[in-house]
Amino acid sequence: MAALPDFDQYLGEYLKPGEPLALLLDYDGTLAELTSHPNLTQMSGEMRQALRNIADSGKAFVAVISGRDVDGVKEKIGLENIIYSGNHGLEVLYPNGTRHNQGIPNDVAGNFDKMIDHLTREVVHHGSWVENKRVSITFHFREAEQQYVTEMARRAKEIIESYGYRANEAHASVEGKPPVQWNKGLAAEYILGTSFDPSWRQRKVIFAGDDTTDEDVMQMIKGSGRSFRVTKDKALVTNADYKIPSVDAVYHLLKWIEARIGG
């Protein structure tokens, strides 16, 4: 069994016992193991309880920023007193039920169903499929036959861009996002800035994520917060301060935070 990361070494000087913090997290691949289909992904009861204990402590502000649609990620986690952000930050859902959505141009929004139809007709085959997230899409090929992956990914990117959406590669997928200058990093900055005040950078901020889309958050808090990239790739270049190898390591990070803020 691999040794667990030494969070005393990583965070001991940064977060003092009993000190309040803002905890930002990705969901898939961070709080829950990646699966062949997003519907199959489940957060463990132990992980949920640790997150609940942190959110209920009175010492921590918690937000989950996911590529899923915002209602989908809330349904997966099931806690009421945290902020959820979906579609890589395009949607924000607050505990009191209020929402904030980044504006999407009408002409682009009008192409959304056409883009899905085109993708479905041309590149959905041999185990690939399109996930409709209402304001963005993900073309998944994790279960596709390997001989088709390179060409279907290339063509999916072309189709997405032809309808005015931005295409980017993610875990065994191509994501299609509206051409709004927005990302998880800007979403995190917006959430922190509106939840506290312009001096939020004086607050201790910790973030963990596993994907390229999470790098924007890591870059945004670099130098003031602390971030963790969930990866087993020791050669991976990342904006994160530290690498940790697994969802299990994230659980131990949460348990370390829980004990630390308890004073």
Automatic annotation (TrEMBL):
It holds the Pfam family Trehalose_PPase. It is an enzyme of class 3 (hydrolase). One of its GO terms (molecular function) is trehalose-phosphatase activity. Its EC number is 3.1.3.12. The keyword Magnesium does not apply. The keyword Hydrolase applies. GO terms for biological process: trehalose biosynthetic process. Keywords: Hydrolase. It catalyses: alpha,alpha-trehalose 6-phosphate + H2O = alpha,alpha-trehalose + phosphate. Its cofactor is a divalent metal cation. Pathway: Glycan biosynthesis; trehalose biosynthesis. Removes the phosphate from trehalose 6-phosphate to produce free trehalose. Belongs to the trehalose phosphatase family. This is Trehalose 6-phosphate phosphatase. It comes from Anopheles albimanus.
